[in-house]
Amino acid sequence: MDILMDTHTILWFFENDEKLSKSAIEVICNPINKKYVSIATLWEAAIKYDIGKLKLSGGFEGFIEAIDDNGFNLLNINPDHVKLIIGMPYIHRDPFDRIIIAQAIIENMFVMTSDANILKYEIKSIW
Length: 127
What we know:
Blueprint lengths: L1 E4 L1 H9 L6 H8 L4 E5 H12 L8 H11 L3 E3 L3 H7 L9 H13 L2 E3 L11 E3 L1
Parallel strand pairs: 1-2, 1-4, 2-3, 4-5
Helix pairs in contact: 3-6, 5-6
């Protein structure tokens, strides 16, 4: 299964946060599944880290290393992802979440999220 992890999912996984469901942990830890992190997640985390809204124990470089150390794949943003945003319903106005939704649709991936707004879109999701 190809899974695109929402920003909070990856952060909760790295922090061992109890908000991350047991089934989500099992899916992430299953080596059969391919886990992806959008470049949009890195962008969002960098902004929040820089303005002090996000604390990362290993700093931003440590966050990137943890993604790599856990075997997560980075998913670049391409023109097809961006084009899909045109005409996408404005259920959710967060630009980072909107690109993650578009990426999941184009790449036929499950989105791992607990975000109720993201789940309102016609996407495959897992939690």
